[in-house]
Backbone:
C-alpha cells in the first residue's frame, strides 16, 4: 500500500514535471515567436514611421524650395513691373547675397543670358518648363541645384530668372545632416547613381552603400517609391541593422536617401517591449509554477484524503473485525462452555470407563476447539496492538515438564519417537511470560507432531548465559516430517499461510499458529531459525532471552509417568454458602450449578438482570456470579443497579463477572466498572473454586479434607524429615489445597528471599538480615519445615543480639561468629526445604 | 465529486493556456491586418458609354490599364450626363465607396462639381478642363496640341488646294488651342495654306458633323479634313468624297489611303502618370499637369501609304524639335484679326494655353 502510494506519487511528479516542461516549452516557443512577431511588427511599424518622417523631410525640403521660389517669384514680378536694365542688375546682385557659390541669372527664351551665366538646357532638362511659365527646381550633378521662375509679360513668358546653388552649399543649405545625430542623409538623382554626400562622407560610407544587402534594400525602396511618396525598409546586413529610407523631392529630379542604425530608432522601444515581454514571461512562469504547485498540493491533499479515508476504512474494518471476533468468541465460547461443562460432569459422575473414555475424547476435542478460538483471539489482540506480555517468576523445569507431559501422549499416539534433551546446566529460575513461552514451544512441538507421519520428534532445551542475570533460552524442535520447500520458508510465518494445501488438508489448525508464534517471539526480543529439507524433515530453533532470578540449575528433568485421569476432588466445601449465578443461557446456569455441586455451595440462579435484582431484594447471598453479556440489562447495568439498590440484602458482597469476551483489556474494564473480579468462560473449575475460596466469607469455607480424611491422608505421609506435613497442614487449617498453595508460594518466593538473605549476609547488614531470617523462620514453619525454621530461629536470635544496644562486644562477636558459621548450613536447609516442598506440592 | 474537480482543474488550465497563447496571437494577427495597406480605389466618371470607340473607350482603356499596372481598384461611373446633377451624385457615391482619387473625365464636370469638391479635401480630384481650380483638384491634360501641330505640318504637305477643313465642336480654349497649333503646323510646312473651321456646337452630332464636312469639301474646297469631335463622322464624309483626313483620338478601322494618320493620346501612359503621382502624394501639389510628346503621351498613329518618306522625315525632325523643348506658341504670333498674341522672344505660358485661348491664329478662317 505504501509502496504503491509512493510509486503512484512518483508517477504523478513525473507527470507534473512533464506537463510543466511542456507548458514551459510552449511558453518559450510562444515567447520566441512573439518576440519575432513583435520585432517584425515593430520594424514594419518603424518602416512606416521612418517613411513618414522621410516624407516630412521632403515636405521640409519642399518648403525650403517654395521659399526659394517665392523669393525668385518676387524678383520676377519686380522685373516684370520694372523692365529697366540697371535695376535688374542691382536686384540680381541682392539675390546673389554675396556668396560666390550662388549664381544668379536672367535667361532669354532662346537660352541667351541677359544677366549671369548661360545654363545649358541639357544640364537642366526642366529649365524649358520655366519658359512655359512654370516654376522649376532642378538639380544637375556638379552644377548644383537650380531654382528658376519665369518673368512674365501678361500671359506670356519673356524670360526666366534663376538662382543656382553650388553642390558644396547643399548640405548646409538644407540642413539634412542635422536631422538626427545617428541619421545620415544624402541627396541623389532619381536614377540613383550620383550621390551628394553628407558632411563626413568617407570610405566606410562608400562601403556601406556598396553592401549587397543595403543595395538590395535601396532597390526595394526605389520600387516602393514608384507608388509612394517615401519608403523605408529594415535591413539586417553584415554591417549591422539599419533602417534605410528615401523620399522623392517633389518637383525635382532628386531623391533624398538616408539610413539610421536600428538601435537608434527601435532600441528604446524594443527595450520597453523586451521589458514587457520579460515581465509577461515572468508572470506566465509564476502562473505556471503556481499552477503546478497548486496541482501538486491538490494532488497531495487528495492523496492524503484518500489515505485518510483508506486508513479510516481500514480502521473501521479492523474495528468491525474486532467486534466480530468478540461476538464470535462469545458465541463460540458459550456452547464450548456448555460442552466442556457437561464433559466435566460426565467425568465426575460416570463410573462407566467407556463413557469416561468418550467424555475424555469429547473434552480433548473441545479443548482443541477452544485453543483454536484462543489462537484467533491472540492474533486479533496482537494485530490490534492490545496484546501484552505478563512476565512473572517461573521455573523452566515446570514449563518443560508440562510441555513434555502434553506432547508425549500425542507423539506416542502417532507412534513417533519423542525424545527430550535438556541441558542440566540451564538456569531454572527465570523471569518472563511463561504462559507465552509455553505457547511458543507448544506450537513448534505440535506442528512437528502434526506434520510428521513416521519417525521421531526431538525436543532439545539449552540455555546460553549472556550475563549474570540474562539467559538466551534455546528450544530446538527437530522432526522427520514432510519438510518445507526452501522458497517457502520466508512465507512460513505469513498469516493464514499453509503449504501443500492439498496434502495437508486433513491437518487441523487456523494457520495462525506460526504467525502468532513469531509475533510473540518478536515481542520477547527473541528469534526463530528454520532449517528444513523438503521430504526429510525440519528443525525449528527458537531463542528467547529471559531474566535469571535465582541460583538454580535445572538438573535432570524427571518426567512424571503419564498420569491417568484422576477423579475430581473439590478443593473445598462450603455447605453454608449461598451464591447467585446470573446468566441468560440456561445451559450455562446448569453447567455452573453442576460444577459447584461438589463444593456443596448452595447455588441459586437468575436468567436475567431483572430477576437477579429481584432475588437480591429477597434474600442475602455471599457471592454473585454475574454474566456480563445479557439481553436488555447487561452485566454492567445490573451491577450498577444492584450497588445502588436500597433494599439489596447483599449490597457489599463480591460480584464476579462471567464473560466469554476474552479480548485483552476486559479484566481492567470490568474491575473499573465495579466488579470484584472476573471469570472467563468457559469456566475453568479450578479457577472458579479458587475464586470462591478467595471471596467467600472465610468462616463458611471448609477444607474438603475435613470431610474426606482418606483423601487427606495421602499427602500426610512424611516425605522426609525436613517437612512435618502434619504440622504444615495444621497451619493450613487442614486443607491440602491451602497447604499446597503455601508450599508453592514458599517455593516461588524462595529464590527472591534467599537472594535477599544472601545479600544482607554478605553485606553484613545484620538488621535486615535479622528481618529476613525472622521471615524464613515463620514461613518455613508455616509449611511444616521445622528443621529449617529452627535453624532460622537460631540465626535470628544471634542477629538480635548483634543488633541489640545492650549487648556487650563479646556477645556481639560471638553472635557474628555464630551467624558466619551457621549461615551456609541454614541456606542448605532452606534449599532442601524448598525442593522438598516442591516435591510435596506436586504430590498433593 | 473530487474526480470532477480534477477534471475541471485541468480544463481551467487548458482554457488559461488557450487564452494566454491564442488571444495574443489573434491580437497580433488583427494588428497585422490593421497595418496591412488598404487597397487604393480610383473613381472614374465619364460622359458616354465606355464600350463605344472614340473618347470614351480610349479614356476607359487607358485608366483601366493604368490601374492594373499599379494594382489599384477602378470604380467606373459612365453615362453620367453633364449638367444633370448626376455628376455630384456619382462623386458622393464614389467617395462613399472608398475612392481616394476621382477622375472627372468630361469637360464640364468640374464646373458642375466645383462646390462638392471642397467638401472632400482628402480626395484627390483630377479633371481634363482648366475651367475651375480647387486645392484638391489637378487639371490634367496631354499636350494634344503638339500632335495637332505635327498633323498640321502633314496636312500642309499633303494639301494641293491649300485649303484644309477643320470640323470643330465649339470655340473654347481646348478646341482653339488645337486649331491654332494645327494651323501653326500647316504654316510651318506650307505658308500658303489656310485652315477653314466650321463649328458644330456639340461634341457628338454626327449629322451636323457630316454636313459640315461635306460643306468644307464642296464649298470651301478643302482637300484635307480634320476634326475635333468625340466621334468620326467627318472622317467618313472625307473618305466618301475622296478627301484626305486626319482622325482624332482614335485609330480608325479603315485601310484607305486618305486616312493619313490619327492624332492620338496614349491615355494609359497618361493615367499611369497621374495615378503614380497620386500614390506618391504629389498630385495636389500642382495646379495643372500636362504630359507632352517628350514622354510619348501624344503622337501620330501609323501613317497612310500616301504619306511619303520625305514627309515622314520632315515630321520626325519637327517632332524632335518639340521633344527637345522647342515651343510651338513662342515668337511672334498674330491672331486672325491681326492682333499680336505673342511678341518676339516671348512664349505663351502654359497657364494661358490651358485657360485663355479665345482667339484663332492668323490663317484660320471660320465658315459659318
Residues:
Amino acid at each position: 500500500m505504501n509502496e504503491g502510494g509512493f510509486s503512484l506519487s512518483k508517477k504523478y511528479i513525473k507527470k507534473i514535471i512533464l506537463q510543466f516542461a511542456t507548458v514551459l516549452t510552449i511558453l518559450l516557443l510562444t515567447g520566441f515567436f512573439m518576440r519575432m512577431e513583435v520585432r517584425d511588427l515593430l520594424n514594419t511599424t518603424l518602416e512606416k514611421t521612418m517613411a513618414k518622417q522621410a516624407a516630412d523631410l521632403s515636405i521640409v525640403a519642399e518648403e525650403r524650395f517654395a521659399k526659394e521660389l517665392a523669393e525668385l517669384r518676387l524678383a520676377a514680378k519686380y522685373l516684370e513691373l520694372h523692365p529697366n536694365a540697371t535695376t535688374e542688375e542691382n536686384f540680381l546682385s541682392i539675390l546673389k547675397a554675396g556668396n560666390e557659390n550662388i549664381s544668379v541669372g536672367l535667361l532669354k527664351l532662346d537660352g541667351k543670358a541677359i544677366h549671369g551665366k548661360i545654363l545649358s538646357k541639357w544640364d537642366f532638362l526642366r529649365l524649358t518648363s520655366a519658359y512655359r511659365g512654370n516654376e522649376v527646381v532642378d538639380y544637375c550633378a556638379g552644377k548644383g541645384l537650380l531654382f528658376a521662375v519665369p518673368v512674365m509679360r501678361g500671359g506670356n513668358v519673356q524670360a526666366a530668372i534663376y538662382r543656382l546653388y553650388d553642390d558644396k552649399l547643399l548640405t548646409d543649405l538644407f540642413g539634412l545632416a542635422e536631422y538626427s545625430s545617428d541619421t545620415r542623409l544624402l541627396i541623389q538623382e532619381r536614377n540613383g547613381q550620383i550621390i551628394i554626400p553628407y558632411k563626413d562622407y568617407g570610405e566606410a560610407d562608400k562601403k556601406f552603400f556598396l553592401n549587397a544587402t543595403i543595395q538590395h534594400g535601396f532597390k526595394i525602396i526605389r520600387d516602393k517609391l514608384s507608388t509612394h511618396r517615401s519608403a523605408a525598409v529594415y535591413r539586417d546586413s553584415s554591417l549591422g541593422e539599419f533602417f534605410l529610407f528615401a523620399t522623392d523631392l517633389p518637383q525635382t529630379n532628386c531623391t533624398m536617401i538616408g539610413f539610421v542604425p536600428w538601435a537608434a530608432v527601435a532600441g528604446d522601444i524594443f527595450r520597453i517591449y523586451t521589458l514587457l515581454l520579460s515581465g509577461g514571461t515572468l508572470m506566465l512562469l509564476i502562473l505556471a509554477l503556481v499552477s503546478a504547485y497548486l496541482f501538486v498540493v491538490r494532488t497531495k491533499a487528495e492523496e492524503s484524503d484518500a489515505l485518510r479515508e483508506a486508513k479510516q476504512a481500514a480502521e473501521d474494518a479492523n474495528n468491525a473485525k474486532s467486534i466480530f471476533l468478540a461476538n464470535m468468541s462469545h458465541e463460540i465460547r458459550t456452547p464450548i462452555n456448555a460442552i466442556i461443562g457437561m464433559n466435566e460432569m460426565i467425568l465426575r459422575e460416570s463410573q462407566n470407563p467407556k463413557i469416561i473414555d468418550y467424555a475424555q475424547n469429547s473434552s480433548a476435542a473441545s479443548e482443541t476447539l477452544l485453543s483454536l478460538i484462543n489462537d484467533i483471539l491472540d492474533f486479533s489482540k496482537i494485530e490490534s496492538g492490545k496484546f501484552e506480555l505478563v512476565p512473572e517468576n517461573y521455573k523452566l523445569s515446570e514449563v518443560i515438564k508440562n510441555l513434555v507431559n502434553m506432547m508425549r501422549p500425542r507423539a506416542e499416539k502417532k507412534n513417533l519417537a519423542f525424545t527430550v534433551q535438556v541441558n542440566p546446566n540451564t538456569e531454572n529460575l527465570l523471569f518472563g511470560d511463561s504462559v507465552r513461552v509455553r505457547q511458543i514451544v507448544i506450537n513448534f512441538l505440535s506442528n512437528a507432531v502434526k506434520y510428521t507421519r513416521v519417525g521421531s520428534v526431538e525436543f532439545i532445551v539449552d540455555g546460553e548465559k549472556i550475563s549474570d542475570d540474562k539467559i538466551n533460552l534455546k528450544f530446538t524442535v527437530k522432526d522427520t516430517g514432510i519438510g518445507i520447500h526452501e522458497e517457502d520458508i520466508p512465507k512460513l510465518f505469513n498469516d493464514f499461510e499453509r503449504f501443500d494445501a492439498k496434502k495437508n488438508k486433513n491437518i487441523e489448525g487456523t494457520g495462525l499458529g506460526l504467525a502468532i508464534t513469531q509475533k510473540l517471539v518478536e515481542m520477547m526480543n527473541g528469534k526463530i531459525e528454520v532449517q528444513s529439507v523438503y521430504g526429510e524433515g525440519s528443525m525449528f530453533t527458537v531463542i528467547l532471552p529471559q531474566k535469571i532470578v535465582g541460583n538454580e540449575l535445572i538438573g535432570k528433568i524427571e518426567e512424571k509417568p503419564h498420569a491417568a485421569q484422576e477423579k475430581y476432588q473439590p478443593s473445598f466445601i462450603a455447605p453454608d454458602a449461598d451464591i447467585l449465578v446470573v446468566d441468560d443461557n440456561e445451559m450455562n446456569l446448569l453447567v455452573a450449578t453442576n460444577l459447584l455441586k461438589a463444593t456443596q455451595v448452595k447455588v441459586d440462579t437468575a436468567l436475567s438482570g431483572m430477576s437477579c435484582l429481584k432475588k437480591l431484594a429477597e434474600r442475602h447471598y455471599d457471592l454473585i456470579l454475574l454474566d456480563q453479556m445479557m439481553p436488555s440489562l447487561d452485566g454492567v447495568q445490573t451491577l450498577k443497579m444492584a450497588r445502588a439498590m436500597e433494599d439489596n440484602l447483599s449490597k457489599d458482597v463480591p460480584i464476579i463477572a462471567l464473560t466469554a469476551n476474552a479480548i485483552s483489556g476486559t479484566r481492567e474494564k470490568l474491575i473499573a466498572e465495579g466488579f470484584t473480579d472476573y471469570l472467563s468462560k468457559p469456566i475453568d473449575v479450578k479457577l472458579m473454586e479458587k475464586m470462591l475460596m478467595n471471596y467467600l466469607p472465610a468462616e463458611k469455607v471448609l477444607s474438603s479434607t475435613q470431610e474426606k480424611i482418606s483423601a487427606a491422608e495421602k499427602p500426610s505421609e512424611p516425605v522426609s524429615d525436613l517437612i512435618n506435613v502434619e504440622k504444615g497442614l495444621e497451619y493450613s487449617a487442614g486443607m491440602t489445597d491451602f497447604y499446597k498453595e503455601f508450599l508453592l508460594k514458599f517455593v516461588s518466593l524462595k529464590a527472591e528471599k534467599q537472594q535477599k538473605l544472601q545479600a544482607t549476609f554478605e553485606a553484613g547488614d545484620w538488621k535486615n538480615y535479622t528481618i529476613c531470617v525472622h521471615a524464613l523462620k515463620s514461613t518455613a514453619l508455616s509449611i511444616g519445615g521445622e528443621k529449617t525454621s529452627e535453624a532460622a530461629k537460631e540465626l535470628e536470635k544471634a542477629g538480635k543480639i548483634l543488633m541489640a544496644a545492650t549487648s556487650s562486644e563479646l556477645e556481639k562477636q560471638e553472635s557474628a561468629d555464630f551467624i558466619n558459621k551457621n549461615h551456609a548450613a541454614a541456606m542448605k536447609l532452606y534449599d532442601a526445604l524448598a525442593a522438598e516442598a516442591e516435591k510435596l506440592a506436586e504430590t498433593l | 465529486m473530487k474526480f470532477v474537480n480534477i477534471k475541471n482543474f485541468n480544463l481551467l488550465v487548458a482554457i488559461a493556456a488557450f487564452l494566454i497563447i491564442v488571444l495574443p496571437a489573434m491580437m497580433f494577427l488583427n494588428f497585422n491586418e490593421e497595418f496591412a495597406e488598404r487597397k487604393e480605389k480610383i473613381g472614374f466618371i465619364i460622359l458616354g458609354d465606355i464600350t463605344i470607340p472614340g473618347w470614351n473607350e480610349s479614356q476607359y482603356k487607358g485608366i483601366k490599364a493604368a490601374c492594373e499596372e499599379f494594382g489599384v481598384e477602378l470604380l467606373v461611373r459612365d453615362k453620367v450626363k453633364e449638367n444633370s446633377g448626376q455628376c455630384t451624385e456619382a462623386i458622393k457615391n464614389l467617395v462613399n465607396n472608398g475612392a481616394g482619387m476621382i477622375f472627372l473625365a468630361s469637360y464640364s464636370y468640374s464646373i458642375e462639381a466645383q462646390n462638392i469638391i471642397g467638401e472632400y479635401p482628402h480626395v484627390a480630384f483630377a479633371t481634363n478642363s482648366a475651367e475651375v481650380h480647387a486645392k484638391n483638384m489637378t487639371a490634367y491634360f496631354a499636350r494634344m496640341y503638339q500632335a495637332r501641330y505635327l498633323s498640321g505640318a502633314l496636312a500642309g504637305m499633303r494639301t494641293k488646294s491649300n485649303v484644309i477643313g477643320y470640323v470643330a465642336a465649339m470655340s473654347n480654349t481646348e478646341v482653339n488651342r488645337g486649331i491654332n497649333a494645327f494651323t501653326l503646323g500647316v504654316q510651318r510646312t506650307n505658308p500658303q495654306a489656310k485652315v477653314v473651321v466650321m463649328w458644330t456646337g456639340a461634341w457628338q452630332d454626327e449629322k451636323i458633323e457630316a454636313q459640315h464636312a461635306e460643306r468644307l469639301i464642296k464649298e470651301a474646297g478643302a482637300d484635307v479634313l480634320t476634326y475635333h469631335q468625340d466621334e468620326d463622322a467627318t472622317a467618313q464624309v472625307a473618305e466618301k468624297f475622296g478627301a484626305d483626313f486626319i482622325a482624332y483620338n482614335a485609330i480608325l478601322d479603315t485601310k484607305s489611303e486618305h486616312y493619313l494618320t490619327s492624332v492620338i493620346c496614349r491615355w494609359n501612359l497618361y493615367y499611369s502618370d497621374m495615378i503614380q503621382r497620386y500614390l506618391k502624394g504629389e498630385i495636389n501639389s500642382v495646379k495643372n499637369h500636362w504630359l507632352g510628346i517628350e514622354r510619348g503621351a501624344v503622337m501620330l498613329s501609323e501613317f497612310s501609304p500616301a504619306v511619303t518618306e520625305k514627309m515622314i522625315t520632315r515630321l520626325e525632325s519637327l517632332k524632335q524639335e518639340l521633344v527637345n523643348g522647342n515651343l510651338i506658341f513662342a515668337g511672334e504670333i498674330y491672331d486672325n484679326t491681326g492682333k499680336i498674341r505673342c511678341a518676339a522672344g516671348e512664349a505663351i505660358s502654359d497657364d494661358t494655353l490651358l485657360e485663355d485661348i479665345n482667339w484663332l491664329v492668323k490663317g484660320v478662317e471660320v465658315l459659318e
User: Anything to note?
Assistant: Residues 520 and 767 of chain A are 44 Å apart (CA to CA). Residues 355-548 of chain A form a domain with the Heat Shock Protein 90 fold (CATH 3.30.565.10). The two ends of chain A are 57 Å apart (CA to CA).
